[in-house]
TrEMBL record:
CDD domains membership: MDR_like_2 (cd05289)
InterPro entries: ADH-like_N, ER, GroES-like_sf, NAD(P)-bd_dom_sf
Name under which the protein is recorded: NADPH:quinone reductase-like Zn-dependent oxidoreductase
Molecular-function GO terms, alphabetical: mRNA 3'-UTR AU-rich region binding; NADPH binding; quinone reductase (NADPH) activity
Swiss-Prot/TrEMBL keywords: NADP, Oxidoreductase
Keyword Lipid biosynthesis: no
Pfam annotation, one family: ADH_zinc_N_2
């Protein structure tokens, strides 16, 4: 099968389309024929060498990609009865993969995924649309979990028109937070549709009980939190020191098949926005990375084998 791999970290040209053996599912796993894989900033970090520098990748070759949608191809041994009934061959599924230094990940023709991490894709969502949902929606949900009950608190979401921020703004509004979304003036219609109030500049003094920093503004965003408030950042590659009694949380996403199933159902019903900016063939993964690196997209770039 064909898979996108990296042998030497670097720019988009480091992505190589490689012929690899078909992966075999192990105990509790399912092999998926991939129909779509979304491109995420974490993929760019892997490609550029951030995880190599941290010692998380030491092998000669590593696969790329963690968001996928496709069709169940082969069931591995030792599945639970529920998983075997739910994931029959031909079933359409989606998942976010736990990061691992494997030779083949989501940018590939086939991928092996733990059955527990898979969610069935409902009618009404294409594989391209479904692949755009997992990582960002689950990251937003798990970021809000770190804040606990809303209790009417004020919340700033940075990057509120972006992939994680758009989900965070809407889901936080639904939980009862009073949400402001930091975004460009041109994004006002989208931000207000999530239930948030548009903010085009960070406040110059602490103003919010909590911040979900989807735009990774870090010190500038934490300065907007009141004393003894909460700050939630995304996966970090460097430490950040708390101050003024602020609790600093870091959301490190983890796969959650049942929760993803609910988010996909809501997406299929039109309750959560599905935004795809561009669809490219797997062979154009370098172009996809350049598009994401350039920034400013209002939707996902999705690769199709």
């Amino acid at each position: 099968m064909l898979a996108t791999t990296i042998t030497t970290p670097g720019g988009p040209e480091a992505l190589q389309l490689t012929e690899l053996p078909l992966p075999e599912p192990g105990a509790g796993q399912v092999r998926i024929r991939v129909e779509a894989a979304a491109v995420n900033p974490v993929d760019l970090m892997l490609r550029s060498g951030a995880f190599h520098q941290l010692g998380m990748i030491t092998g000669p070759r590593v696969g790329v990609g963690i968001d996928l949608a496709g069709v169940v191809d082969t069931l591995g041994p030792d599945l639970t009865d529920d998983a075997a009934d739910r994931l029959t061959p031909g079933t359409r599924v989606a998942a976010v993969l736990a990061f691992s230094p494997a030779e083949s990940l989501a940018y590939a023709e086939y991928a092996v995924v733990p059955a527990a991490d898979l969610a069935v894709v409902p009618d009404g969502l294409s594989s391209v649309q479904a692949a755009s949902v997992p990582l960002n929606s689950l990251t937003a949900e798990q970021a809000l979990d770190l804040l606990g009950p809303a209790r009417g608190r004020t919340l700033l979401v940075t990057g509120a028109a972006g992939a994680v921020g758009g989900y965070a703004a809407q889901l936080a509004s639904e939980r009862g937070f009073v949400v402001s979304g930091l975004a460009r003036p041109s994004d006002e219609a989208f931000v207000t549709s999530t239930g948030a109030t548009l903010l085009t500049e960070l406040p110059t003094t602490p103003a919010f009980d909590a911040v979900v920093d989807a735009a990774v503004l870090e010190p500038a965003a934490i300065a907007a939190v009141v004393d003894d408030g909460d700050y939630v950042g995304v996966i970090r590659v460097r430490p950040y020191r708390a101050e003024r009694g602020i609790t600093v949380h870091t959301v490190g996403f983890h796969p959650d098949g049942p929760r993803l199933a609910g988010l996909l159902e809501r997406s299929a019903r039109g309750e959560l926005p599905v935004r795809v900016a561009e669809v490219l063939p797997l062979s154009e993964a370098p172009k996809a990375h350049r598009l994401v690196e350039a920034g400013g997209l209002r939707g996902r770039v999705v690769l199709v084998p």
